[in-house]
Write a structure and sequence with these properties.
This protein has a single domain, classed as Nucleoside Triphosphate Pyrophosphohydrolase, CATH 3.90.79. The chain contains four helices and nine strands, in the order E-E-H-E-E-E-E-H-E-E-E-H-H. The protein has helices spanning about 20-25, 75-85, 140-145, 155-165; strands at about 5-10, 15-20, 30-40, 45-50, 60, 65-70, 95-100, 110-120, 130-135. Helix content is about 25%, strand content about 30%. The chain is of the alpha+beta class.
């Protein structure tokens, strides 16, 4: 059976070796991931409910797409790949790199680059990855997190907090060339 290979990284996000996914997770080794948030013209964010088949955070809500960076792959290439694989969206140049989050317990020992893209959908959800997806505005997400944070994957909570604190979601001019 095929098993994904990941780059294991040090505290500076420099590759030190490559190991199978199961070993990286079992030994809680630092590795890389991406999160992409897709926003529509009403500035709503598309969130996915992770499939119950997932080995990590099954049935919890998460970023529009998220996934590991494969061994030898760049963050940027992984972001484009994950969006295509999980929701069937071709992002091309319509992908903005926002910020990086350092590896921690909350991120599952992943260094995470966060991206944003624009789309109105509809999406083709990959059934073995996603049970459902819906659009939410920032206030709905904030209220939901404050009432039921356990409904969300821990990495998404870290991403959302940093995104909210950055003021990005209040920049309604995003996508018009005036970031």
């Amino acid at each position: 059976m095929f098993e994904e290979m990941f780059d294991v990284v040090d505290e500076h996000d420099e590759v030190v070796k490559q190991l199978p996914r199961s070993q990286v997770h079992r030994e809680k080794l630092q590795h890389r991931a991406v999160h992409v948030l897709v926003l529509n013209s009403d500035f709503k964010v598309f969130l996915q409910k992770r499939s119950m088949l997932k080995d990590e955070f099954p049935g919890l809500w998460d970023s529009s797409t998220s996934g590991h960076v494969d061994a030898g792959e760049t963050y940027d290439i992984a972001a484009v790949r994950e969006v295509k694989e999980e929701i069937g969206l071709e992002v091309g140049r319509n992908l903005e790199k926002l910020f990086k989050i350092n590896a921690s317990l909350e991120t599952g020992w992943e260094f995470v680059w966060v991206y944003v893209s624009r789309s109105e959908g509809p999406f083709q959800l990959q059934a073995d990855e996603i049970d459902e997806g819906r659009w939410f505005d920032q206030n709905q997400i904030n209220s939901w997190i404050s009432k039921n944070p356990d409904d969300f994957a821990s990495g998404f909570l870290v991403v959302w907090k940093k995104l909210s604190n950055s003021g990005f979601l209040s920049k309604r001019s995003w996508g018009n060339g005036s970031n």
